[in-house]
# Entry
Amino acid sequence: MDAIGFYYPDDYGPYLGTRVPQFTATSGIKRLLKPLVNRIVNSNSQKVPPLAPGRMLELGCASGSYLHQMAEQGWQVQGIEYSEKAAQAAAQLGYQVHAGPLETAPNPDEPFDLIVGWMVLEHLHDPLGCLKKLREWAKPGAWLVLSIPNAGSLEFRLFKDKWYALQLPTHFHHFTPATLEKVLSVSGWKLEKIYHQRTLSNLIASMGYVLRDKGYVKLGKKFIDFPERGGWIMYVLYPLAWLFSVFGQTGRMTVWARVKS
# Structure
């Protein structure tokens, strides 16, 4: 692991948040209610095209919860995960996971129908090279689905160096819809659709940095922690988040791209 690994400890939030819990009566109830809740409050954070199950690769699969979700829907899943411990947790679920960066991952035995990466592209040292490699691993007509921060949003213009999604030094690159389309195009992908996620997490956390710098340290920290601990407040804010998304002004976006013919 290189020096940047210091900023991705074993207790890094996405690693812990993607663990697949043991089944309990409570989790079973939540599992039944989750599809209904997702229909009503759909953030578009992991929205994928309506495809028949095939072969899927998740870049940055963390501890494997999304791999597990898609496998239960009939997909043959594989993952790539930088953290050895998180990759091990995903592999223990029975899934094939490469522990290490995409650059060191071996070529797959067969190409993929769907490749996804949730808040991963901005972490990569060489996003263009990685997108080209993923293109080589994709079937003709395959889909690429990515979620990333939106540097073209009102949030970034408003908060600038206090924008929560900057997250230095773990975020190396940021994209607007226009720059992302260019990067995808030169790497062999055609941008098909952008979904502006219905969430105000970045905005609220950015307000936390402003409050902290003005001396309101405890209150600021509560705001900064909101993306990880928002809970039921997320649902209260959903109507406003939906409105922001209509105008393309939330701080996160999910993009669909397809292999260029």
